[in-house]
Design goal:
With 263 residues, the protein is an alpha/beta fold. Helix content is 29%, strand content 24%. It contains 7 helices and 13 strands. Strands 1, 4, 5, 6, 8, 9, 10, 11 and 12 form a 9-stranded mixed beta sheet that branches. Strands 2-3 form a two-stranded antiparallel sheet. It has a two-stranded antiparallel sheet with strand order 7-13. Strand 9 and strand 10 form a beta hairpin. The longest helix has 15 residues. The radius of gyration is 17 Å and the shape is globular. The N terminus is likely disordered.
């Protein structure tokens, strides 16, 4: 039997075919718009669907959606979403969705083998960000995070953002919501390997709460957390009504393929 060739970027690492989308949190600041943040519509598309469609456009064929709050509603929407987007979608229900988001990463990553895109259900990206990110794997890194150097980007909520301080070689020195100084902001899209959930588990064993940033810091301390600058590409974290309104205004121009009639 012939074995299909594995797609690899120039530096030899496999291009991912899996994605994990975190959709377990409460989303309290969007509750006036929707009881389920991942199902909140933006220009008629649920936030979760926008993430699935962008992942599929980047070549992803299997997606794990980590559910928690309103899990039954989100999971009930997945079969139709998979059919519309032409990808396989699997649910992973986290045992306790009130725990930090690193626990959701561990739950979702358990259902994939090989490298995977890690995304947040409330983040929307222009196609180029995820497409470029899939080709960032290398033996010298365990995770690569898409970052924005525009510290004054009006689409970023400074009170909610996760900030980074990077080294001259572009690797991460520090990451978190309260670090200072910082020179970039986390865009919420990662190219990860199994080392990331392992690092989160290590952080928990060290007495940390188990956030995604806790695991990222473990890898950063080991020099294994790299970055990819998005170079001005469009993205937004739809975390509150202001950001939701901005996303609805921007989306037709930012991702026009969503609104193109099927041929």
């Amino acid at each position: 039997m012939e074995t299909a060739a594995v797609s690899r970027p120039a530096h030899g690492a496999a291009v991912p075919r899996h994605a994990v989308i975190l959709a377990a949190g409460l989303g309290s600041r969007l509750r006036d718009l929707s009881q389920s943040k991942p199902l909140t519509p933006v220009c008629g598309f649920p936030l979760l669907e926008l993430g699935v469609r962008q992942a599929a456009a980047a070549g992803i064929t299997h997606i794990v959606v980590v559910t928690g709050h309103e899990a039954a509603r989100v999971e009930a929407a997945l079969p139709d979403l998979a059919a519309r987007c032409g990808v396989a979608i699997q649910a992973a229900r986290v045992a306790d969705w009130t725990l930090p988001n690193g626990h959701s990463v561990i739950a979702g990553a358990a259902l994939v083998d090989g490298p995977f895109l890690l995304m947040m259900a409330d983040h929307i990206f222009s196609a180029e960000i995820l497409q470029r990110l899939t080709h960032e794997g290398a033996p010298t890194r365990d995770v690569t995070l898409a970052i924005d150097r525009r510290l004054d980007n009006p689409l970023v909520d400074p009170d909610d953002a996760t900030w980074l301080r990077t080294r001259p070689d572009g690797t991460i020195a520090a990451i978190g919501k309260t670090i200072f100084p910082y020179d970039a902001v986390d865009c919420g899209a990662f190219l990860a390997t199994a080392a990331l959930p392992a690092a989160i588990a290590q952080a928990v064993a060290m007495g940390r709460p188990g956030s995604l940033s806790d695991g990222m810091q473990v890898l950063a301390d080991a020099g294994r957390a790299a970055t990819m600058e998005i170079d001005g590409a469009w993205w937004i974290d739809v975390d509150d009504p202001r950001a939701h309104a901005q996303a609805e205004a921007d989306l037709p121009q930012a991702i026009p393929a969503l609104f193109s009639p099927a041929i």
